[in-house]
Design goal:
This protein has 11 helices and 6 strands. With 387 residues, the chain is an alpha/beta fold. The protein has 3 domains: 2-221, Alpha-lytic protease prodomain-like (Up-down Bundle), CATH 1.20.1510.10; 225-302, Alpha-Beta Plaits (2-Layer Sandwich); 306-387, GMP Synthetase, Chain A, domain 3 (2-Layer Sandwich).
């Protein structure tokens, strides 16, 4: 049923350029309708039965309804093209709408935490009827369907916001099961556990809201790209013929489908400028076509024919490897001017490396004096690059 619905919608949207936005809005509408139905039905049976846990679950569905509205708005705005004020587009608004949803979920959780505390202090009986049980069972089925639907659409359009919404929908299944258990236990045994179950649901809602807030804060601050994306870039750059190597890869994301990157490409310093420009253009165009990434390349000429330069290059590599195999040196250059001879290079330091930059500088300098000669070493320490 879900696959049929998605495939039918996709066929209708084939002529539209931004199918991702269309799918996001479609998911928002489906969520809005189903959550609104659940909210109204649970609120009515909660009022009839006097169950605070059922009303808490109804308010959770109300927050899901508002979440669906925010999803609609979020995908609509994120689908707008770049403009003068937002040259990188509007895709990050999807993260903002997700953040607002998370704050709403957390607020509702705190509200019903206080209500549940009051109900524990002053317990009241729940009027359990077959209608209530049927409505709760149906709500479980609807939430399962909704969660699977969100997850499949999220996978199709690669949306973290919908992944979070799918997770929230499937988690709601457990809260409704808890409400069902509460009503059943009181109906069978007479034990008034409604306030305690409501308290558990409230704590769960608060936890889910705070977890989502954390995820979207990370998205807005800028996360490390997933390893699969990094591996794809490494695989492509390693397959490029003619270049000597690459380093200093940086990736910037301005939304799920708006990725920019920069990298230093090492080339033979005997290449003329037109040839180097042609090769760089080829790399940038294939990155865009194959990976969907806007790449900017910086050229680093490498001396491959001077024996003295090659000796220094190999010795520096040996020195760095002897200190720690996780360290990587690049842009190694011997400046052999009589007035100021020196060795320069960049050193990529892993984030979990224990020694300080100053300690590394001293160790490297000592070994250079011993293995290469009387050359001061100027090291630029890199701590933020991916490759």
């Amino acid at each position: 049923m879900i696959n049929f619905l998605i495939e039918r919608f996709e066929k209708k949207q084939q002529k539209k350029s931004d199918i991702r936005t269309a799918f996001g809005i479609f998911a928002g509408i489906m969520g809005l309708l189903s959550n609104l139905l659940l909210f109204v039905s649970k609120l009515l049976i909660g009022l009839v039965s006097g169950s605070v846990s059922i009303m808490a679950d109804a308010m959770n569905n109300l927050s899901d309804t508002v979440s669906s509205v925010l999803t609609l708005v979020g995908f609509y705005i994120s689908g707008k093209p770049a403009d003068k004020e937002h040259p990188y587009g509007h895709e990050r608004f999807e993260y903002i709408s997700g953040m607002l949803v998370s704050l709403l979920i957390t607020f509702v959780g705190f509200q019903f935490f206080m209500t549940s505390i009051d109900r524990i202090r002053d317990p009241q009986s729940i009027k359990v009827t077959p209608v209530i049980l049927v409505v709760l069972l149906l709500s479980i089925l609807i939430k399962v369907w909704q969660g699977v639907f969100y997850r499949r659409v999220a996978k199709k359009i690669d949306s973290n916001a919908l992944v979070a919404t799918a997770k929230d929908s499937l988690n709601d299944v457990f809260t409704t099961i808890a409400v069902l258990v509460s009503a059943s236990v009181e109906g069978i045994t007479g034990l008034k556990i409604d306030g305690f179950v409501g308290l558990l649901i409230a704590c769960y809602i608060i936890f889910s809201g705070l977890q989502l807030i954390r995820e979207f804060i990370n998205e807005l601050m800028g996360l490390r790209p997933n390893q699969e994306a990094i591996d794809q870039m490494k695989e492509y750059l390693s397959s490029v013929t003619d270049i000597v190597g690459y380093h200093d890869l940086l990736i910037h994301q301005y939304g799920p489908n708006k990725t920019f990157a920069s990298v230093h490409i090492e080339i033979d310093d005997r290449w003329d400028l037109p040839h180097a420009h042609e090769k760089i253009d080829e790399i940038e165009q294939k990155f865009k076509k194959q990976l969907g990434v806007e790449l900017v390349c910086h050229i680093d000429p490498v001396n491959l024919h001077d024996q003295r330069q090659q000796f220094v290059h190999l010795e520096i590599k040996k020195i760095i490897k002897s200190i720690n195999s996780d360290l990587r040196a690049h842009d190694i250059r011997l400046i052999d001017h009589a007035d100021r001879p020196r060795i320069l290079f960049d050193l990529v330091v892993p984030s979990d490396f224990k020694a300080t930059d100053q300690e590394l500088q001293i160790r490297i300098q000592e070994q250079v004096y011993r293995n290469i000669g009387d050359y001061p070493v100027e090291v630029t320490f890199d701590h933020i690059y991916l490759l």
